[in-house]
Amino acid sequence: MLLDIRNLTISTNTANGRVNVLDRVSLQVDEGEIHTLVGESGSGKSLIARAIMGFLSPRWEVQADRLWFQDTDLLNLTAKQRREIIGVDIAMIFQDAKSYLDPNITIGAQLSEAVLNQDLSGSFFKRKSERKAKVASLLHRVGIKDHEAMMNSYAHQLSEGAAQKIMIASAIAHRPLLLIADEPTSTMEPATRQQIYRLLAQLHARYGMSILMISQDLGAIMQQTQRLSMIYSGQIMETGGADALLESPSHPYTEALLNTSLYRHAKMPPRTRLPTLAGAEPTLQHLPIGCRLGPRCQYARPPCVKTPSLEKRQDRQVACHYPLHLDEGKK
């Protein structure tokens, strides 16, 4: 197992006291796996990614039974030790790629900084040309053929798709074992989104790189996704094989997201209104007791005021007292 997170809790202070924004989250990513984490905006998806990367500010308190990358406990590392791992074995790309590119220097100069010195074998005087050649190679890998024009460009001159390709090129410069993609295509047109997804799938197939993809739409996940995890308001609802969950969801939240996405309604007539999940995701000041989906769940019963644990049920793990399609009498 490449990444192993067990009972990750992230808390912060609010006007009503301390609250657990993430509540005992467990998540695993195997070597060479594409694992997609899906949840609505504000569900805590990005907090998980930033906890892995060590990007959280001191106002967040992080606790976990286990937060391991390979055989390394990330929570017991110093800041310097964490940076050494992040700089080599784990990389992350973000939603608004342009905002993470330096507007004052060329794309070529920025990618040159991503090339590690240990990847250069020439003499001191030859390293400049060798570094440029590696940057050109990176651009070719992400589907940019005219590397000279791109290396001389600035961030404001790039389209969304091109900017995201540059972020991916920078991320794979040191051939990471794990790539975390935090909603990298959410603002893109469908055609551009599919182009980026194809690129990530090719890199995954070529290098065996594991990918933790973060998305808020089940209808817009990578076709190559092998495992899905559903998160709602800081709690993991369900996790399992992607095909199995999409075919027969066991948690009401997974079913609700499927019903509200184009995954099940791709052939709906024009102007047809999609189904919606009643209510709104709770604020930090008004988190429900027990299962946080309870107030919006049509299947909720009195025992749901007690937080369900994420338990193994058949071919998946489900955090629900009354899972769909597994226990009789639920429907």
UniProtKB/TrEMBL annotation:
Name its GO BP terms in alphabetical order: peptide transport
Instruction: Fetch the Pfam families from UniProt.
Output: ABC_tran (PF00005), oligo_HPY (PF08352)
Main localization (coarse): membrane
Q: Which domain of life is it from?
A: Bacteria
Give the UniProt subcellular location, in the record's own words: Cell inner membrane
Q: Which residues form the ABC transporter domain?
A: 3-258
User: What InterPro entries does the entry give?
Assistant: AAA+_ATPase, ABC_Ni/Peptide_Import, ABC_transporter-like_ATP-bd, Oligopep_ABC_C, P-loop_NTPase
Its GO CC terms are:
plasma membrane
Gene3D superfamilies cross-referenced by the UniProt entry:
P-loop containing nucleotide triphosphate hydrolases (3.40.50.300)
Does the keyword Membrane feature in the UniProt annotation?
A: yes
Membrane topology term reads: Peripheral membrane protein
| Recorded GO MF terms | ATP binding; ATP hydrolysis activity
Going by the UniProt record, its keywords in alphabetical order are: ATP-binding, Cell inner membrane, Cell membrane, Membrane, Nucleotide-binding, Transport
Tell me the SMART domains matching this sequence.
AAA
Which SUPFAM superfamilies does UniProt cross-reference here?
A: P-loop containing nucleoside triphosphate hydrolases
Can you tell me which family this protein belongs to?
Belongs to the ABC transporter superfamily.
* Family annotation (NCBIfam families): oligo_HPY
What protein name is recorded for this chain? Peptide ABC transporter ATP-binding protein
Instruction: State the organism named in the record.
Output: Aliidiomarina iranensis
